[in-house]
């Protein structure tokens, strides 16, 4: 008889556990939104793809090359742009200072030699890809630049 009473008490206590409402505890904070990737920062060049579409019968070309070691772009938060590359005829020191504007996936870079407009094809926290197109009467040249950080 004692076993029956203990068994009934145990079943009753287990059944009561399933009927209690769970305390949800304190409310969790809302998730923090992940900020969109930013162009601001230093990017290291990895490759350049040059496509030349010639008018007329000349065969087109499509060449991808590795970007020279040391080619970097630094986009500052206030529109300042610094380009670092191995010294060359255009920049004996290897450093050019310019400005940039970036709006709606359009990047405009300006140096003393002039401005270029680029279409940004990819921008993540680790990858930047942009291209620019230049045309004249004999050809259209499309350059696609890929950077990482």
From TrEMBL:
It comes from Hymenobacter roseosalivarius DSM 11622. This is Lipocalin-like domain-containing protein.
């Amino acid at each position: 008889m004692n076993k029956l009473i203990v068994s009934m008490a145990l079943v009753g206590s287990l059944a009561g556990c399933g009927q209690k409402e769970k305390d949800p505890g304190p409310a969790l904070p809302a998730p923090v939104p992940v900020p969109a990737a930013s162009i601001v920062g230093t990017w290291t060049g990895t490759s350049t793809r040059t496509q030349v579409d010639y008018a007329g019968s000349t065969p087109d070309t499509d060449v991808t090359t590795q970007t020279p070691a040391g080619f970097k772009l630094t986009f500052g938060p206030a529109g300042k742009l610094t380009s670092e590359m191995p010294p060359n005829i255009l920049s004996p020191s290897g450093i050019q200072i310019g400005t940039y504007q970036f709006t709606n996936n359009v990047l405009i870079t300006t140096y003393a030699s002039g401005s270029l407009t680029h279409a940004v094809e990819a921008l993540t926290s680790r990858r930047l890809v942009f291209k620019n197109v230049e045309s004249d009467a004999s050809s259209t040249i499309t350059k696609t630049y890929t950077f990482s950080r």
